[in-house]
Amino acid sequence: MPRPTHSLLLPGLLVPLALALAACGGGATTSPVTAGGTTGGTTGTGTGLSAYYLTFTLCGDAAGPDCRALRLGDTELTTTTPARGKLYSCTPANPSAPGSNRARIDWIDFTANSWNLLRKPFLPAGSFTAPPGTATVTETATSRIIAVNNLPKDGKIGDWPMTRYSALTAIDPNPGTPSARNYTFELPLVPAAGLSPSCVSLGAIGATLNGVVLYNAMDARGNDAVAHEIVDAFGGHPAMTDYHYHFVPERLDAGPLADGHSGLVGYIRDGFPLYGYRGTGGVELRNTDLDECHGHSHGALGYHYHATLEYPYTIGCYRGTPR
After folding, report:
1. What's the whole-model pTM score?
2. Closest CA to 182 of 151, 152, 210
3. 45-84, pLDDT tens digit by residue?
4. Which of 16, 255, 271, 299 could cysteine-pair with 263, CB 3.0–4.6 Å?
5. What does the mean pLDDT of the chain come to?
6. CB-facing half-sphere around the CA of 282: CA atoms within 13 A
7. Which of 46-50, 133-137, 240-244 has the lowest mean pLDDT?
8. What is the 3-state secondary structure (H, E, C) of the chain?
9. Cβ distance 234 to 35 under 8 Å?
10. Using CA atoms, how far apart are residues 235 and 92, in angstroms rounded to an integer?
11. Is 256 exposed, middle or buried (CB count within 10 Å of its CB: 0-12, 13-18, 19+)?
12. pLDDT at residue 17 in the model
């Protein structure tokens, strides 16, 4: 069971409900750095936000989806039955929750139900410096124990708080500033699939080897968090002080295996591993390559989840039993 350090949280409380329902945000600079680690940006559209645009290596991959017309996940939330490309959530949508200002969002085509990743602004890097991130993985005869302080181990984080960027705050009024928060996840060393998939909880659904926890694909309102919310140029944002990722930052998909398959990114709360964007041969994966929980099984890797640029981005349900 993932258990927060008692000096920081009440015993047994994974993520306080107030934090889980809080709006999230992110950061960027006038010379944005992409989540994949390359410098860039794209031409503007007259909105005054072009300084906050990023480029992504994956967007140039013909095997993946069109980054200019990604499927919006707002209508892909289910609380009844898991299905490929959907998020099977334990919690229904809450339209009255705080979130981004829809009237200020010009990168989402709500009529076509799609959004343009290359025209979405990201909070840049800047003067904000977080404490060093930590992440350790230890194994016992039956368990894999992951301890993180919820800050990036590679030190890559945006210029929080976002309130100093008026153009971004007008879109997503997130006042949060990341701070350290210790989590320990004790997961089965050999995870097993359940009789049926389980719904995905609010708050932390797993942890990356970079020390930052993962949240699921929905924002507080139940909409597509990656499309709607402002995150920083390194892929994260805070819910109050809880920094987290809703998708896998491209730079974490590094160190491929010998066959070109993406390397290990982290672990999900049911114990199954999460790998990056590419399958065997280095081919970028899409939802059609994965099951309803956003995973598949092959070779020595057995069952595992994958990141994709398509909603729900990391997992759609728990294949095993979450702890």
Report:
1. 0.86
2. 151
3. 445 899 999 999 999 999 999 999 999 999 999 999 999 9
4. 255
5. 88
6. 10
7. 46-50
8. CCEECCCCCCCCCCCCHHHHCCCCCCCCCCCCECCCCCECCCCCCCCCCHHHCCCCHHHHCCCCCCCCCEECCCCCEECCCCCCCCEEECCCCCCCCCCCCHHHCCCEECCCCEECHHHCCCECCCCCCCCCCCEEEEECCCEEEEEECCCCCCCCCCCCCHHHCHHHHCCCCCCCCCCCCCEEEEEECCCCEEEEEECECCCCCEEECCCCEECCCECCCCCEHHHHCCCECCCEEEECCEEEECCCCHHHCCCCCCCCCCCEEEEECCCCEEECCECHHHCECCHHHCCCCCEEEEHHHEEEEECCCCCCCCCCCEEECCC
9. yes
10. 25
11. middle
12. 29
pLDDT grade, residue 40 (50/70/90)?
very low
Peptide bond into 256 cis (omega under 30): no
Count the neighbouring beta carbons within 10 Å of the beta carbon of residue 214: 27
- Please give the share of the chain, as a percent, with pLDDT higher than 70: 85
Q: Could you tell me if 63 and 212 are in contact, meaning their C-beta atoms sit under 8 angstroms apart?
A: no
Rounded to 10 degrees, the C-alpha dihedral 228/233/239/244 comes to 110
According to DSSP, the residues that pair with 304 across neighbouring strands are 296
Q: For residue 309, give the amino acid letter.
A: L
Tokens of 255: 């160190």
- Measured in whole angstroms, the distance separating CA 321 from the mean position of its chain's CA atoms is 20
pLDDT more than 90, % of the chain:
85
Strands 77-78 and 87-88 come out as parallel
pLDDT at 266: 98
